[in-house]
């Protein structure tokens, strides 16, 4: 890619992003990575009250972080427990000359939410309980891990200050504490904005 003609928020289309991926990931892109339109709506909701440090839980190939970085001044941090995906995400971020995004190869259980003030989740833990939704066998997956991830995320979100924003896409939203209220939804209720009330 030429530095004189970089991909930006207008030129990075759904198909253009898909073409950046290896063939095996192109085949599962629609199922496992946030659609461009969903990402843009979520980013608008998360940042409409100011610049944020946003954590994408289960960042995959970094698509949400990349779209967010190209469409806002906020900084996007991804956490991804598959090393191959985290590496690819950072290669794409570098290739696209993005300065306000990074994806860390870490487990969510090792993440302290204090450094972040907004959060995005595309049903990141579900594959632990539904075999057909598993991306690959790179990491161990189990029902017990699903429960541990849900508990950790809920506890970390509970400690956040009033006004904290969380966007979820798909899922049962079991990781959202009762102190959060759903204030917006879209895409037949699949995309939700939650705000901590107390």
Strand content: 15-25%
**Residues in helix, %:** 25-40%
- CATH homologous superfamily (4th level) name: Vaccinia Virus protein VP39
Number of helices: 6
CATH class: Alpha Beta
Structural class of the helices, strands and pairings?
alpha/beta
Describe this structure in words.
This protein has 198 residues and is an alpha/beta fold. It has one domain (14-196): Vaccinia Virus protein VP39 (Rossmann fold). It is built from six helices and seven strands. It has helices at residues 14-19, 23-32, 36-47, 63-71, 83-95, 143-158; strands at 53-57, 75-80, 101-105, 118-121, 165-169, 180-186, 191-196. Strands 3-2-1-4-5-7-6 form a seven-stranded mixed sheet. Helix 4 links the parallel strand 1 (53-57) and strand 2 (75-80). Helix 3 (36-47) packs across helix 4. Mean pLDDT is 94; it is low at 1-5.
Record keyword descriptors for this entry.
single chain; 198 residues; alpha/beta; Rossmann fold; seven-stranded mixed sheet; globular; disordered N terminus
List the helices and strands and how they pair.
Blueprint lengths: L13 H6 L3 H10 L3 H12 L5 E5 L5 H9 L3 E6 L2 H13 L5 E5 L12 E4 L21 H16 L6 E5 L10 E7 L4 E6 L2
Parallel strand pairs: 1-2, 1-4, 2-3, 4-5
Antiparallel strand pairs: 5-7, 6-7
């Amino acid at each position: 890619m030429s530095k004189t003609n970089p991909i930006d928020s207008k030129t990075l289309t759904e198909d253009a992003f898909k073409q950046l991926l290896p063939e095996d990931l192109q085949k599962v892109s629609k199922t496992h990575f946030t659609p461009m339109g969903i990402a843009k709506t979520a980013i608008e909701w998360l940042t409409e009250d100011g610049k944020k440090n946003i954590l994408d839980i289960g960042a995959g190939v970094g698509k949400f972080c990349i779209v967010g970085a190209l469409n806002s001044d906020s900084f996007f941090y991804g956490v991804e427990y598959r090393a191959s995906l985290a590496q690819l995400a950072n290669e794409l971020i570098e290739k696209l000359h993005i300065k306000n995004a990074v994806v860390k190869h870490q487990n969510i259980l090792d993440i302290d939410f204090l450094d972040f003030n907004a959060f995005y989740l595309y049903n990141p833990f579900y594959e632990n309980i539904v075999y057909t939704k598993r991306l690959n066998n790179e990491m161990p997956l189990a029902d017990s891990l699903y429960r541990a991830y849900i508990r950790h995320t809920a506890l970390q979100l509970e400690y956040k200050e009033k006004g904290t924003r969380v966007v979820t896409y798909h899922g049962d939203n079991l990781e959202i504490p009762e102190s959060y209220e759903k204030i917006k939804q879209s895409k037949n209720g699949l995309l939700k904005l939650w705000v901590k009330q107390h």
